[in-house]
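Open question from group meeting: does this chain pack into something compact, or does most of it stay loose? Before anyone orders reagents, we agreed to write out a predicted structure and look at it together. Recording both the input and the output here so the notebook holds the full record.
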Amino acid sequence: MPRQDGDDSPGADAKPGEADVAPLLEEAISMVQRAKSMPLSSSAIVGRDELLALLESVRAGLPGELQRARRLLQDRDELLRLAERDAAELLDEARAQAARMVERTEVVRQARHHADRLVAEAEAEARRLRHEANDAVDRRLATFEIALDRTLRMVHEHRERLAATPDPDPEEDVALGLPDPSPGDGLFDQDLA
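Structure tokens returned:
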């Protein structure tokens, strides 16, 4: 049966005069199934006018149905293209972000490596400077020790000479024109020792 105007069936968006094909085909099949069989035959008796009117409605509806199907296919293809484009953009963005993260990771790794190398070099330089300073101080102390040792030996030798020298003869000193040292002239016992 053809679709009536104002019908809310699946073909309601069809153009005027175009019927929704699926219900019409269902009706044609139902008509053939309900048809009376001819005796001793598999043929059925179907109302020609009614079936022809139904098939004419199907034929009239087919171009619209095909056009809708094509439009649906085009819409589907457009949706697929958009989805593929969006997916490609997402993949490109994800790859770019991953590359940036890898680059940052590489920069951080290189910075850490550079910092570790600088710290190691600074520690080595500090050790070298410490050793050089210790060596310089040790050399100065050794020089000072040698000078002190020489001075101590000289002091010791002079003290031994002084201790070995006989007491001066006051008469000799007078003969040489030296002042007479008397006990009250400012010499102390520790000065003589």
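Observations to bring back to the group:
Strands lie at 36-37, 44-45.
The two ends are 154 Å apart (CA to CA).
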